[in-house]
Amino acid sequence: MGDVEIRNLILGEAMKNSYPRPKNIAKKLGVSKEVVMKVLITAGLWESEQSRQVKKYAEKGMSCKEIAEALNVTEKAVWPYMVYKRSS
After folding, report:
1. How far does Cα 7 stand from its chain's mean position?
2. Reported pTM
3. How far apart are CA 48 and CA 46, in angstroms?
4. Quick one: pLDDT band at residue 84, thresholds 50, 70, 90?
5. Predicted pLDDT of residue 87
6. What one-character-per-residue DSSP string does 45-79 give?
7. Nearest Cα to 23, choosing from 31, 14, 33, 15?
8. How far, CA to CA in Å, does 6 sit from each of 10, 20, 63?
9. Going by fewer Cβ within 10 Å, which terminus of the chain is more open, N or C?
């Protein structure tokens, strides 16, 4: 299954609920919770306190590494909250 297909499945599942839960969608589709979170955050369909903090720093142009240092967490903990960016 390709990235676009996975994205569409995640978004389809999210639209079935007023408050999508990444863990439940991930389990149903057999993908990681982190990928589901990243897709939902990018689409503006889900957020948390952590995602709002990451977004605030990312909007200032900070890298994943810099955000991790500012929040005193690992880069791996920040990655799911970073919005997908299209490469040119």
Report:
1. 11
2. 0.84
3. 7
4. confident
5. 55
6. S---HHHHHHHHHHHTT--HHHHHHHHTS-HHHHG
7. 33
8. 6, 16, 26
9. C
Joined tokens for residue 66 = 């810099």
Q: Are 11 and 39 in contact (CB under 8 A)?
A: yes
User: In whole angstroms, what is the distance from residue 67 CA to residue 79 CA?
Assistant: 10
What is d(CA 31, CA 75) in angstroms, rounded to the nearest whole number?
20
- Residue for token digits 């969608």? 25
Distance CA 65, CA 20 (A): 28
Q: What average pLDDT does range 21-42 have in this prediction?
A: 94
* Coil, strand or helix at 18: coil
